[in-house]
UniProtKB/TrEMBL annotation:
SUPFAM superfamilies: Plant invertase/pectin methylesterase inhibitor (SSF101148). Residues 25-184 form the Pectinesterase inhibitor domain. Keywords: Signal. The keyword Signal applies. It comes from the Eukaryota. Transmembrane segments: none annotated. One of its GO terms (molecular function) is pectinesterase inhibitor activity. The keyword Signal applies. This is Plant invertase/pectin methylesterase inhibitor superfamily protein.
Amino acid sequence: MYNFSFSSFTLTARKYTSTSEAVTPTSSYIKTSCAKATYPALCEQSLTPFEKTIQKSPAKLARTALAVSLKRSLSTQAYLNKLKRIKGLKPRERSAIGDCLEEVSDSLDRVSKSIQELKNCDKVKGQEFTWHMSNVQTWVSSALTDENTCMDGFGGKAMEGRVKSSVRAQITSVAHVTSNALALVNNFAQKH
């Protein structure tokens, strides 16, 4: 359903953040907002291609950041599914990849629910807004925990090697964009 790869995403994002381009008010808004994120450069890089959608809306910025996290998670899930089918994996590696897949699936579910819940925030105010926003913050935080927990199965010297490095790179990528999304969600909650 989603044909997305981290390398093509990076290349696309770099195209939009070229220093030869004039800084628009929207990209300035993204830059200022991303300064509060855990990984500001990645935040800018991943969100600038969507500046026309985001405009200067904290809600759209948070939703777009969650959508980037969701797409990155879907890409990681597909990668792990392919990796798990490779012949020659050690049984512990295959098991750790399976556990990681479960964590990524849980994370996907939570981020997806967060996107839907954030849409509900547009329609409400006061305590109801706070309740919906609290759900979003809890789910995104849990998604981040799921992503970080994924690497637990790769502990110990016996698990060192290309498989662990490869999985770590994928999970780190997802965790970083999810961490940025959480920061932008929190910022949106404070501004509302």
